[in-house]
Design goal:
- The strands form four sheets. Strands 1, 4, 5, 8, 9, 12 and 13 form a seven-stranded antiparallel sheet that branches. Strands 2-3 form a two-stranded antiparallel ribbon. A two-stranded antiparallel sheet has the order 6-7.
- The chain is an alpha+beta fold.
- It contains seven helices and 13 strands.
- About 15% of the residues lie in helices and about 20% in strands.
- β12 and β13 form a beta hairpin.
Amino acid sequence: MAIIKPSKKFAGSEMSSGDGGKYIRSDVRQVLFNKNNNKDGTYLYFLPAYKLDNTGTDGVWFKVINVRDNFGDKFKDKYVVLDPNDPVAHFERNFKLHYPEEALVTEEVNDKTGRTQKKYPTYGRVTKRVIFNVAYSQELEKGCHVLDLPAYNGANILTKWLEGKDNRGRERPMINDPERCIPVFVKLNDGGGAPWEITPDPTDPAALPDELADADHIYNLDDIFIKRTNIELIAKLKEWYTPDVVEECMAGYEGFGGAGGVLAKNSANPITPKEAAPAAAPVKRTPALKSPIPKVSTKKAETAVVSDEDDDLDMSPSTVETNPMAGISEEEVKAFLKQ
C-alpha cells in the first residue's frame, strides 16, 4: 500500500460545532465584519438583479427575511423564519398570554462593556434582515459573495441614499447598474447606536464583468438558507421548558402531542397551526425551565444578555450550541418528543 503524506486540511476534517448561530449555508461565500474580517471596512460592488419579480419586468436584487435571534438561554441561536406560523411563534403567543411577566423584554447592564442591553425571553424575538449579492471592488476575482445587513440602521441607509437626490436635485443612479456600478464603502463600527457605516462613491463607477452581472452566475438569494424543521424547533422548546409549560403553550398546534407527537405518519407534510380555543385569563406564574437552565429572570450571572446589535458585531460566533437532533434516529426522536 502506498504511503500517503498527511494534509493539514482535507474533506471531512472540519471539526466546528455545526451551524448553530448561523442561518446562511456554509457553502455560500459571505462578506463578514468582525475582529478578524474587514475590521477597517471595505469597498463593495452591489450586484445586479438575480431574478425578475412576479410582474416579470422588475429586477429583484436583494432579499428581505425574518430571522428569529436570541433563541436560547446561555447559547443564542438564530434561524430564518420561513413560516410565520411556525411552532415557536405559536409557543410565543401563548407564553405571552399565560406568563405575561416572564415574557417581558428587560434591560441589564453588561459587566464587560458597561452598556445597557436588552434581555429577551428564551424563545427570542423576530427581526428583519436584508441579504445582498456583492463583490469586493478591488478583488473581483474572489467572485460573488452575500452581505447580510440589519434592515434598520443597515440596509435602509442604502435605500435612503438611492431615494434621495444629488446636490443638483437630480435622481441618484442605481448603485448596481452593471455598466456603471458604484462602489460602496461598508464598515461595522464597534459600539451602540447606529454601528453600520455605508457610503456610496458615485464618482468612480465601473462596468462589471459578465461573471458578476449575469443572473446565472450570482447567488439565488431565495435558496441560500439553512432550513430548520418543526421537529427541531419543538425539540429546542422541550429542551428548555418543563413539559407542563410546553404542553400549555403548544396547545392548539396541529400535530403536537398525542401518539407520535409532531412526527406525523407522513413527516413530509408541514405542520400548520389551527385556531386554538379561547384561553383562560392570564395567571401570574413562574414557568420552570429544565435543569440545568435557571428559571426565567433569575440568576443574572448565568443568563446570557445579547443586545440588538450583537449579532452584527461578530457574525461568526466561536461559542455555539450544537444541534440536539444530530445523529439521533427517528425512533429516538419520537421517544424524546413524547417526554
